[in-house]
Specification:
43% of the residues lie in helices and 11% in strands. It is of the alpha/beta class. The chain starts with 6 loop residues before the first strand and ends with a helix.
Amino acid sequence: MSDKPQACIFDLDGVIVDTARYHFSAWSELANELVIPFNEEDNEQLKGLSRIDSLEFILRKGSLVLDNHTKVRLMDRKNDRYLSHVKTMTPAELFPGVLEFIDELRAEGVRIGLGSSSRNAPLILDLCCITDRFETVVDGNSITLSKPDPEVFLTGAQALGAQPENTVVFEDAVSGVKAGKAGGFRVVGVGSPEVLSEADFTISSFEGFSLQELLSRLS
Ligand code: B16
Ligand code: MG
């Protein structure tokens, strides 16, 4: 890609804000109560999955079969714990450099979307005062198939009037990178190159990152 992209679609948890650690802590507590072992490596696989897919992963790990009513109760308990961390969030919890980068893209006419599996995305955007940065928000409330299915990013690109091949996705999750690639997008991994090996390239942070660097690394 030598010309600037038509659009960029950002994942939320783990890309814009550091909420991945809150998900980890809330799932760990629940797994602990169910006496199911759960570590950072398991958590890596949960990133980007919907709430129900995450619970099913943990239950499978513990060979636990539960009825739907109990699953809903457990998901509500996990979400209450997650929200107890989230509700005090402020713009100070935005990752360094990400807002500056989004604003640079906007100034250059690149269209900006959010592509998150989280049903809490609107609340977090609001608490961090960044809702207005996104022309479209596609999240866990509006999709039927969660990552690694590309639905979230394809819906976002369509709303932005952009072609996947001219759109860049930013993702911190293995499932999210797979979703982006499955949809025909260029994907920048935010995190470890070993973990996000299917991304076009990875960055460790947005600090100092620019449109110029994006273009040179994608070309
Ligand atoms: P919620 P993202 C994902 O958000 C998280 O990575 C994942 O850990 C979480 O289970 C999922 O959202 C659902 O979140 O329970 O808040 O609806 O990374 O796609 O922005
Ligand atoms: Mg994420």
